[in-house]
Amino acid sequence: SAFAQVLGQIGDKAPDVDDAAYFAMCFEAVQKLVKEKLVLSGHDIGAGGMITSLLEMCFANQDGGMEIYGASLPLTEFFFSERPGVVLQIRDSKLKAVDKILASLADEKHPEGVYMMRIGRYSRKRSVNILNTYRINIDKMRDIWYSTSYQMELRQTNALCARQRAANFAKQPLEFKFPKGFSGKSVSADSKGAPVAAIIREKGSNGDREMAWCLHLAGFRVKDVHMTDLTSGRETLKNVQMIVFVGGFSNADTLGSAKGWAGAFLYNEKANKALNDFYARKDTLSLGICNGCQLMAELGLITPEQREKSPKLLHNISHKFESGFVGVEIPKSNSILLKPLEGSRLGIWVAHGEGRFGFPAGNLKPNGKITSDGKTPDMEVALRYCYDKYPANPNGSPFRIAGVCSADGRHLAMMPHPERGLRPWNWAYYPTARRDRDTVTPWIEMFTAGVKWCQENH
């Protein structure tokens, strides 16, 4: 065990499962408790034993701790044994319901069902207090627990980012603010007379199925358009009002982020004409996500009338691929799709290696208006990360920029993935008060806004 190693010992008894049938019974019990929504949180007992599991349960938040009072075994064996087990947090008012479920799993060999020991309770103090004798500072232990990861990251990534993560990982909590009046319910999709949205994808694109579902759920009629449909002339986009360039790694990111994909438009007459004709119309919307955002930047589609002023997507300052769940805020802008979410702070997934926005010299202003002449906006900031520093700003974008839109608001390019957070269970963390009653998250609002605009401007 980890405890034996600390004492310079090897030991002669390895943790084991003596009764496979009972192990299965315990697993089934946990599944039932989760299904009945009786578990607030939980953690398996593994390396480091019970005490490590208890501390790790507290590391994910910024306040609160535990009072531990139950120990039927000697302290060393109770807190440091690595035998399989699970620690669960359950409301006092739900304990009888839990006891009933555990007892219901009894069989001839285990007439009492699944055994559970009550070992402590939640405390508002930021410590784990053991038997009123040992008080362990959670934040201090979290710093020690994280130090190994920090040392590894110093050797794997930009040292500046490694230091920023070590300084900020406990100081950048997810804090949400949902739009006023958000019901959490999806609208019924009615394809009759609905506007048409097309998903544009290339070899290596992904996220198209999730995006199609978002569009369909909001009320669009959805078309799947592969680049071969455009290059062959099978698809012209004439009957399409909204196009979405989805994320992924088109052509395995040949030549860099979306550059190979951009070439398929630039150097094919039919695809190029279909795209230019679409952007020349005034009744159209476009959205680029991740790789699609990179494509829109490469093709100048964020500033379709002045393409030389388009931003570029540069390598993350960490020098590595970043994947995680972060917070974003939606500032006031002309973005049609994000208009109903203005003022919100939401959670969202990111997954990219080149997501840092770079702008032509002189056209970036921190007030949200991006302009080259100091007067007329070339584009606007439509989405920002909630914090300026890494890792909550995962790519080092200036002024926390996560997405931009055209000056008229019709064309939106963003690196994070709203389609991957459509349902509450898609989020790494969703507000507890809404988790059981919401069927969709606020990200559905950007797609329903698109439907409404297309219907009004058809």
Indicate the topology.
Blueprint: H1 2-6, H2 20-35, E1 41-44, H3 49-59, E2 65-68, H4 75-80, E3 86-89, H5 95-104, E4 120-123, E5 127-130, E6 134-137, H6 138-154, H7 159-168, E7 196-201, H8 208-218, E8 221-226, H9 227-232, E9 242-245, H10 259-266, H11 269-280, E10 285-289, H12 291-299, E11 312-314, E12 322-329, E13 345-352, E14 356-358, E15 369-371, E16 377-385, E17 401-406, E18 411-414, H13 432-435, H14 444-456
Parallel strand pairs: 2-5, 7-8, 7-9, 9-10, 10-18
Antiparallel strand pairs: 1-3, 2-4, 5-6, 11-14, 12-13, 12-16, 15-16, 16-17, 17-18
Helix pairs in contact: 3-6, 6-7, 8-14, 10-12
The CA-CA distance between the termini, in Å, is 68 Å
Total number of helical segments? 14
Q: What Rg, in angstroms, do the CA atoms define?
A: 26 Å
Percent helix among the residues? 25-40%
Classification by helices and strands? alpha/beta
The main pleated sheet reads as: 10 strands, mixed
Averaging pLDDT over every residue, what do you get? Answer: 93
The residue ranges in which pLDDT falls below 50 over 5 or more consecutive positions are none
Specify the overall morphology: elongated
Strand content: 15-25%
- Compute the number of strand runs: 18
